[in-house]
Amino acid sequence: MRRPDKLFAFLHRLGQWAARSRWRRGLAGAAALAAWAYAGLVLVGLALWLATGDALLPVRLMIAFVYWIALGLAAAVALALWQRRWRLAALSLPLALLLGVPYLPQYLPRLGAPPPAAGESFTVMSYSVMGRNKDVDAMASVILEVRPDILFLQEFHLMEALEARIGGLYGGAPVHAVLEPGMGLAILSRFPLTPLPPLRGIQKAVAHLPCGDIHLWTLRAPKTFDGPAPQHRFVAMLAEDMRMQDAPALAVGDFNLTERSAPYAYLRRFLRNAHEEAGFGLGATFPAPGRRLGRLLPSMVRIDHIFFNDHFVATNSSVVPDAGGSDHYPIRSRFAWANVSCESPQ
Questions:
Q1: ∠ CA 195-219-65 to the nearest 5 degrees?
Q2: Measured between alpha carbons, how far is residue 90 from residues 12, 30, 77, 79 in Å?
Q3: Which of 163, 288, 317, 333 could form a disulfide bond with 323, CB atoms 3.0-4.6 angstroms apart?
Q4: 93: left (phi > 0), else alpha (psi -120 to 50), else beta?
Q5: Which residue pairs, CB below 8 angstroms and at least 24 apart, start in 41-47?
Q6: pLDDT digits (tens, 9 = 90+) for 115-165
Q7: Coil, helix or strand for 186?
Q8: DSSP code per residue over 67-99
Q9: Strand 212-220 to 249-254 pairing
Q10: What is this structure's pTM?
């Protein structure tokens, strides 16, 4: 009886091993099939991108999430190399490099970065507070932690309540403010401000610093789901207005544009971006926990931006890690004047 028992036990173990082997082979095959499908979809998306630009919503969403798509392709490459599927690697690797390499400079030391300019410097903060966010105490806590010299607010309608909580923002010095209630836009500053006539969806003002005046634009641009035409028109309107001012300039706010979109590239022809000049990593600002999606996922896209012209040098830029109840994380950047020598205010 012992021999049959041993034989049955051996056959049972052999069956278990075979079942596990089939399961592993099946899982490996399914993973490879999924990687092929993923790379194929990316290839189709790129073809549509080249053929139609950003006219199609799926293409615009692909543009917005290029960074994460590149990471998925990198995983497909790793899987292909592990399983020795050379054709899959030959398809996935060029796509991963094509989409991922443009992000590498944001993770490398900036050896050629200009040194901070001497003289006056100032901090800028952009904060899209979310229209339905009524937690003024949380907003004020974020602002008081950063203490920006110039603060740009979007989706904002609680000026009186906020001013009551940040009265000591500048150590007893007055907080200058200009507000466009109909647009939900506001600018607060330690420096005197002069409001200018607004454009459609864009607030304008001039900040009077000891080193000179700065023309300010703050905005909340159309969303990706609104279609490409509104975004392109909005950016063209902003660019045309800014070109009329041969002066130090900042354009700040919720642009609803990611760094691979055509309107963003259009702005970069004549403006610099603080994150690209002095930030690190992806710099994603959306979604934050104020939106349900932001409670489940990390921030995934950078749609809040601080643009500036050649009158300044960006010395530091980062995402503020506290959203204060908003669905966007704020961003802050430190600037120094380029080719201007004057003392910083005390």
A1: 165
A2: 41, 19, 8, 12
A3: 288
A4: alpha
A5: 42/69, 42/73, 42/95, 42/99, 43/91, 43/95, 46/95, 46/98
A6: 555 567 999 999 999 988 899 999 999 999 999 999 999 999 988 899 889
A7: strand
A8: HHHHHHHHHHHHHHHHHT-HHHHHHHHHHHHHH
A9: parallel
A10: 0.88
Summary count for the chain: helices (H), strands (E): 10, 12
**What single DSSP character describes residue 286?**
B
Q: Which residues contact 302 (CB under 8 A, 6 or more apart)?
A: 258, 259, 275, 282, 283, 284, 285, 286
- 47 vs 212: CA distance, rounded Å: 48
Q: How far is CA 240 from CA 153, 173, 220, 249, 267, in A?
A: 23, 36, 17, 13, 11
Q: Mean pLDDT of all residues in the chain? A: 88
Q: Which two tokens stand for residue 337?
A: 């004047």
336 three-class SS: strand
Q: What is the dihedral of CA 28, 32, 33, 35, to 10 degrees?
A: 140
Sign for the pseudo-dihedral over CA of 293, 299, 300, 302 = positive
CB neighbour list of residue 145: distance below 8 Å, 6 or more residues apart: 320, 322
**Of the candidates 67, 134, 100, 111, the residue with the CA atom closest to the CA atom of residue 282:** 67
Structure tokens at 243: 């070109």
**Residue 23 DSSP SS3:** helix
Q: Is residue 174 scored above 50 in pLDDT?
A: yes
The band of 296, judged by pLDDT with boundaries at 50, 70 and 90, is: confident
What's the CA gap between 309 and 11, in Å, rounded? 76
Measure the CA–CA gap between 94 and 82, rounded to whole angstroms: 17
Strand order in the sheet with 193-199: 193-199, 202-209, 212-220, 249-254, 304-308, 272-273
Q: Tokens at residue 36, please?
A: 């092929």
Rounded Cα distance between 194 and 344, Å, is 21
AA identity, residue 154: Q
Structure tokens at 285: 């600002």
